[in-house]
Amino acid sequence: MSRPDRPSDRAGTGSYASPPCLAHEIDPSYFDPRAVDPQQARDVAQWRKAERARLLAQRTAMPVHERKDAAEAVARHLDAVLTARTGDPAGTPSPHGGRSRRN
Fold first, then answer.
1. Which residues contact 90 (CB under 8 A, 6 or more apart)?
2. How many Å apart are CA 89 and CA 83, to the nearest integer?
3. CA-CA distance, 102 to 92, in Å (whole number)?
4. CA proximity to 14, closest of 26, 29, 28, 4
5. Mind listing the pLDDT tens digit of every residue in the chain (103 residues)?
């Protein structure tokens, strides 16, 4: 609840008793959440590369009409989800130079 007698509340900027995240208080010698194990990073990169190759081979092994049907089903689903959330699937940002799939 706002108290109008406090100057910070009248100006629309208030202060909070504590920050939303206390990660800055963790001693890095105890646990550093930004630390990355080099071997694990290599393992993950290898797995991702192999997984991409496997999925690409699986997709290219599908007949063209099945790939097209699957792509259209995904597009319909995304349109429904985006329309439910934003009201306009064509107005959502696209990773392909701003073009929607309808252009």
1. 100, 102
2. 5
3. 12
4. 4
5. 445 555 554 555 667 777 777 777 777 777 776 778 889 999 999 999 999 999 999 999 999 999 999 999 999 998 888 888 877 766 556 555 544 454 4
Tally of CB atoms within 10 A around 63:
8
Burial of 32 (0-12, 13-18, 19+ CB in 10 A): exposed
Of the candidates 102, 55, 98, the residue with the CA atom closest to the CA atom of residue 76: 102
Which residues touch 94 (CB under 8 Å, ≥6 apart)? 100
The tens digit of pLDDT for each residue in 53-72 reads 999 999 999 999 999 999 99
| pTM for the structure as a whole | 0.45
